[in-house]
Design brief:
By secondary structure, this protein is α+β, with helices and mostly antiparallel strands. The protein has helices at 2-11, 29-40, 42-45, 62-78, 89-96, 100-113, 126-138, 165-174, 191-206, 210-239, 248-251, 255-268, 276-288, 351-354, 388-394, 399-402; strands at 20-24, 49-56, 81-86, 119-121, 152-153, 156-157, 245-246, 290-295, 298-303, 306-309, 319-321, 327-331, 334-342, 358-359, 368-371, 377-379, 385-387, 406-410, 413-417, 421-422, 434-440.
Length: 446
């Protein structure tokens, strides 16, 4: 078994660049086996510092105290540095709403990160991998979720992943090693224990060599995953633009690549606990436009074949009285120039420009500039009265831009809007003598 573990470490280059290696040491048979193998072969492996990391979860009272002391004594006997962390997992789980299993796992890895080790070895073995597969299968996992526990990820390595629990027990017996038994592992109160005690024995009853068959199945799944992931990564890179992803790149590819590409994009965007339904929602808005909440405070938006992420920031309501004169107005959505022109000045403009001008005499003294409000609507020249929502959709105004639109209004209604221009009631005509033009500073739009 030692040769198998050393080969796994070498093949996966698990200890590359590692000076200080930590090993998660619960005191159970798996972790004792791993710690012993690493200790006995530290010189061959080039391990400079080896630490045993024990987490006291605050769950099993005196039994947990016993496990801590056992782990401390083990480290002293075999020359490992001993590091212990304490947590009240039940209290933390009650506070966060996590299950005891979920909370304990999160805290365990948080402590591993604080251990001061370059890498941390955990004692996950082949049977754990089978349990993980079954657990993920019951939750409707994707291909990635069915590919098992990775040999290495971030600072974590799993040298026992090719070893069965039967091999571990034989190693313990052959080397006359003591270990402790966690009483919670004997109970079916936890999901993994139900799988371990009730489901896995049926698999081995159907096929005594099920673990070997499982490894072959996992290898095939990982080959498929690697191929799809490699191509999906290329798609993501092709679609990546400045601040958004180009939906057209994904339009004609196979659905398997689309799903994996969106999954990779969501990971880039730090979306938490996203699932198949979230990916389906994004693929849907890539066809129809719109936005959808993904989770982890991430919002996906699609406009003009552009997929981008982030909350749409709402501009606080503002309303600024103005005087009808040449002026520069500063607002929360930008700075705007108000210019007054007279009939004699019109020869300097073309008809398209003049059609955007406002008849000064049709505006009351109560004029204000403001941002839009829910329920706003107005009538453009030659068109029926419409809400801003309909105008936004008809003119394909980006969702991210809608909150930035400036509105000029008076006591009779909306006079002018930044994106759509002058209203019917205030449009200049052949009788107009005094005109207003509004221009955003730094833009050519008016």
């Amino acid at each position: 078994m030692t040769d198998k573990v050393l080969k796994t470490i070498e093949d996966c280059q698990m200890l590359s660049g590692c000076h200080t290696l930590g090993v998660g040491l619960s005191g159970g048979a798996d972790s004792v086996c791993l710690a012993h193998i690493l200790s006995e072969n530290r010189e061959k492996l080039g391990i400079k510092v080896l630490k045993g990391i024990h987490i006291h979860h605050g769950i099993r009272g005196e039994e947990a105290d016993r496990d801590l002391e056992f782990s401390r004594n083990f480290c002293e006997k075999y020359g490992l540095e001993f590091v212990a962390f304490y947590a009240d997992v039940p209290a933390e789980a009650q506070k966060t709403g996590e299950s005891i299993e979920e909370c304990a796992r999160r805290i365990r890895y948080e402590f591993f990160e604080k251990s001061g080790c370059d890498k941390v070895a955990t004692a996950h073995n082949l049977n754990d991998n089978i349990e993980t597969f079954v657990f993920n299968l019951t939750r409707g996992a994707s291909l990635s979720g069915l590919c098992g526990i990775p040999y290495a990820r971030d600072i974590y390595i799993r040298p026992l992943l090719n070893c069965s629990r039967e091999e571990i027990e034989k190693y313990i017996l052959d080397n006359d090693l003591s270990f402790v038994t966690d009483s919670t592992n004997l109970s079916d109160d936890y999901t993994r224990n139900k799988i371990r005690h009730n489901i896995l024995p049926l698999f081995f009853e159907l096929n005594p060599s099920f673990d070997k068959s499982f490894v072959k199945c996992l290898d095939s799944l990982n080959l498929s995953k690697d191929y799809i992931t490699e191509n999906a990564c290329s798609l993501v890179e092709k679609s990546r633009c400045d601040g958004y992803y180009d939906c057209k790149v994904l339009e004609d590819c196979h659905d398997a690549l689309k799903y994996q590409a969106i999954s990779l994009i969501l990971k880039e965007q730090n979306a938490k606990n996203f699932n198949r339904e979230n990916i389906d929602a994004i693929l849907n808005i890539m066809k129809t436009r719109g936005s959808v909440n993904i989770g982890g405070n991430v919002k996906a938006n699609v406009e003009r074949n552009k997929l981008y992420f982030g909350e749409i920031s709402k501009t606080d309501c503002f309303e600024i009285p103005i005087e009808i004169k040449d002026d520069l107005i500063s607002t929360p959505v930008g700075d705007y120039l108000i210019n007054i022109f007279y009939e004699k000045d019109l020869q300097n403009f073309n008809k398209q420009d003049i059609d955007k001008f406002i008849d000064c005499d049709k505006i009351s003294n109560s004029a204000v500039v403001r941002n839009r409000r829910d329920g706003d609507n107005y009538q453009l020249p030659g068109r029926p009265n419409k809400s801003f929502k309909k105008l936004f959709n008809e003119n394909k105004v980006l969702i991210s831009e809608r909150e930035k639109m400036l509105v000029l209004s008076d006591d009779k209604g909306i006079v002018w809007t930044e994106f759509f221009g002058v209203s019917k009631m205030c449009k200049a005509n052949e009788n107009t003598e005094k005109f207003i033009k509004i221009t955003k500073v730094g833009k050519n739009n008016d």
